[in-house]
Amino acid sequence: MFSLHGPRRSYVAALGLVATASIVAAGPCDIYSSGGTPCVAAHSTTRALYSAYNGALYQVKRGSDGKTTDIAPLSAGGVANAAAQDDFCANTTCLITIIYDQSGRGNHLRQAPPGGFKGPESNGYDNLASATGAPVTIGGQKAYGVFMSPGTGYSNNAASGIATGDAAEGMYAVLDGTHYNGACCFDYGNAEVSSRDTGNGHMEAIYFGDCTAWGSGSGSGPWIMADLENGLFSGRGARQNTGDPSISYRFVTAAVKGKTNQWAIRGGNAASGSLSTYYSGARPSGGYNPMSKEGAIILGIGGDNSNGAQGTFYEGVMTSGYPSDATENAVQADIVAAQYAVTSLTSGPALPIGTSISLRATTSCCTTRYLAHNSSNTLVTVDGISSSSSSTLKQQATWVVRAGLGNSGCVSFEAWDAPGRYIRHYNFALVLAATDGSKQFREDATFCPQAGLGGGDGGGGPGSVVSIRSWNFPTRYLRHYDNVGYVASNGGVHTFDAAGSFNDDVSWVVGAGFA
Fold this sequence. Notes:
single chain; eleven-stranded antiparallel sheet; mainly beta; seven-stranded antiparallel sheet; elongated
């Protein structure tokens, strides 16, 4: 229950609401409704957004048998039942197949279809997100967000009640402020019903990232901006709005709203404090006044299915009507009161930082083979090693565990015999490379160990079994295939993604380093 003291009380008073227990316990969509701008779409994999909602939040599909299950809150208005997901997905991979709309309008988000940009799947659809890539806690209870790698996207091109034309609307999203890139476009909001660019003003969506192709805020980013189609806008006309700050919060509340010749960007720390207004004023010129919104919903992609961006989504809504600042401030207080916090990205056997380890394959064919690198210090391979192997080969199969270069909650693997060179994935193949100082390299070289998906060690002897997923592509795991290392997804489009023996191929016995 929420307290009536502090900023929460003032936000309730500003809305002209009676401070009763029912108001105190209100969720974001209850608050929007009380403010006269009801939710017409409400999406979250972490919690219910109405105080009385106890239906499904999202659906997951497991890789072992293709079965699905819905994940609901632990109680009405509460946090998602992460334990139910963990039980269902034990010893296999799981994807998020549907993010349900809590508004009652049926505006569910599903795998985005091909559009102006085709998705990476063989049928042109976008990828689905890992169900386990974005663990968090809410009020101390575990939940999972939607970790979206490039190529991942969700949409609904036949949504009900979403603003069209120049009609007024608002929206907010809670996002991971540290997970972003400069590609187009990590959006949540209103887009074209055809998944194609149909012209200026045909979109109105929250954008988050550090793309500078159309506009920017102050500093180096990332920024909250608005995707209005054929432009990411931080303000009205100038390419840069210095009043739109770079974001440094781990959890971010991002809000965009628009009505006839008026729109605004607001944002703040989703874990504390209030919202700030980064822009409020007239629409940009050049086809954006009046707007020509079409009323589809997108998540993680642009209106034409531009799917090169990355980001993490926890919750968000779209409203009918232009919410007042007071209503949005009350919603922000509710978000802060939910107490989003980070939790461990790893599980299973510990890989202590600074230790030297070996990684032995567990597949029955290959229990004498270890993850190694070739003599030119470029390719990561899987080589047979025994007590009589050369010291050179043993050194090539020894890895030093380092704190994750892209996220310190995970790990990176430095070659013992080639200091400064790390395992990274490149076009999903594992290579050994020296850091180039880029954010992309750091993220590609970061991996999150978890309990092994395989049930044993292939009969090759004792040891702790781990599976090691890519941090920035969490549907993909470190796998050996034809004696070469890859980051592979379970049943994906590449040959090395083959479902056969997947769990064993991505399970490794951790041993002491040979060197």
